[in-house]
Design a protein that fits this description.
With 299 residues, the protein is of the alpha/beta class. Helices cover 36% and strands 27% of the residues. The protein is built from eleven helices and 15 strands. The strands form three sheets. A six-stranded mixed sheet has the order 7-8-9-4-10-11, with helices on both faces. Strands 1, 2, 3, 5 and 6 form a five-stranded antiparallel sheet that branches. Helix 3 crosses helix 4, helix 4 packs across helix 5 and helix 5 packs parallel to helix 6. The mean pLDDT is 83.
């Protein structure tokens, strides 16, 4: 585990915002840290970066205790908290050169980072003229300059248009698959996290409600049979009379819990024999957004 916490807690005055949190972030993963506003995501990230001191519990990063190994651990972490800290009057390249001097990093890394985040052609353009997506990519380049093993990003797609979101997503996937980084990303854009994350943790009111791989998350959801047909309300009542549980009805579809392919065929035959026109029938899994709502609303 690149990040491992046990019993991590933090209070702002009398308000407990992180409650006995146990994080397990595997090496080489894109870990999506999810939760509604005020869930404790940013506070947790500040604890991981030693920007806040822990009240209770332990933080181990790269198998080392953060409290006793702060400098060697933080030297291997790159971070971006919401908006990147860039000088708008400097070019993208000048921003990176400035940071390289501070970190005592060879200047050749600057050109490597510009290439990596696809900003080479805009290297000499003032950062103030960059689009939001370009600014975020420059922020990630700044975070990667010292070649860290772990990248911690707090809402990196905040305020981006669809093109900017795609740019950042593709960059993060490349960092993990081609450059062997581990990425820890907090976000409220659930559909976006679903497209790139390998693992997720769902936090609500400071508590971890679910943690595991995307496959683990899908496994806890009941797959559904979704039937697109004419007269959905009448068909739903018909299926109920035949002992089936109807979980959702709208103008186009009826949904029932999936048990087997045989059951799906039997439902199709039953509807056809009773003069319902079935346009399509398929097995569907809940998307991350629906799972997230199920988990947080039942907490």
């Amino acid at each position: 585990m690149v990040i491992s916490t046990e019993g991590l807690s933090f209070n702002f005055g009398n308000q407990q915002v992180v409650k006995s949190l146990s994080l397990q972030v595997p090496e080489g993963s894109i870990y999506g840290f999810l939760g509604p506003n005020g869930a404790g995501k940013t506070t947790t990230i500040k604890l991981l970066l030693n920007l806040l001191k822990t009240d209770q519990g332990s933080i181990h990063i790269f198998d080392q205790d953060l409290r006793n190994n702060r400098i060697p651990i933080l030297s291997q972490i790159g971070s971006l908290i919401e908006q990147p800290a860039i000088y708008l009057h400097l070019s993208g390249r000048e921003n990176l050169v400035n940071r390289a001097l501070l970190l005592q990093v060879p200047e050749k890394r600057v050109d490597e980072m510009l290439e990596l985040v696809h900003l080479k052609e805009a290297a000499h353009k003032k950062a103030g003229k960059y689009s939001l997506g370009m600014k975020q990519r420059l922020g990630i380049a700044l975070a990667l300059l010292a070649d860290p093993k772990l990248l911690i990003l707090d809402e990196p797609t905040n305020g981006l248009d669809p093109n900017g979101i795609i740019e950042v997503r593709e960059l993060l996937i490349r960092l993990v698959t081609q450059h062997k980084k581990t990425v820890f990303i907090s976000s409220h854009l659930l559909a976006e996290v679903e497209r790139m994350a390998t693992h997720v943790g769902i936090i609500h009111k400071g508590e971890m409600l679910f943690q595991g791989s995307i496959k683990d998350l899908e496994a806890i959801s009941q797959p559904q049979i979704q039937v697109e047909l004419n007269d959905t309300v009448d068909a739903a009542n018909f299926l109920k009379k035949h002992g089936l549980t109807v979980t959702d009805v709208n103008d186009e579809c009826v949904s029932v819990p999936f048990a087997s392919k045989t059951q799906m065929g039997e439902i199709n035959t039953l509807l056809n024999k009773n003069d319902y026109t079935v346009y399509s029938i398929r097995k569907v899994n809940k998307d991350l957004e629906k799972l997230f709502l199920d988990i947080t609303q039942n907490a």
